[in-house]
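INTERNAL AUDIT FORM
Audit reference: QA-55
Scope: verify that the stored structure record matches its stored sequence.
Auditor: D.O.
Record contents follow.
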Amino acid sequence: MKVVPYRPEFREDFVRLNTQWLTRFYWVEPFDQYAMDHVEELIAQGAMVFFALDDSEQVLATCMAMPLEGDVWEICKLAARGQYTGTGAGSAVLRAAMDYAEAHGARKEVLISCRGLKPAIHLYEKFGFHQVPYRKDFWKSEKADIEMEREVFSRPGGPLRRQ
């Protein structure tokens, strides 16, 4: 398995995996659809999408890092092909998205999710995210019910992960 940054030939995989993941558990909200419809525009504004690929270049998982404001970045659109959940592909793209955000100045990474997605919440906690009060007015999501964040501490030579 390898992890690569966004390439146009994987755009449909990004849309398909996220649509399948969202509709499997909940539904696609307007901001989800916007990110999928405008992924190249978001990348031009500083975001990045990562893909975990198998040896035949089939997409196993995807995740996006997107600047919000100042040094705060959102980690979002984490989705894995159904048969590959639990194999490390999701962890690999999540780590790549976090590393990208940190390399581009993130001092805090935030995400929203649903408490019912226990494996996802466990994964986020494994990577150092912790629950904070959910800002429903900020996120404007009908399905999300948990907000998590993780601070990145500076050190000479680059970010120091808080784990």
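Auditor finding: record pair retrieved intact. The beta strands are 2-5, 48-53, 59-69, 72-80, 108-113, 130-132, 146-155, 158-161.
Action required: none
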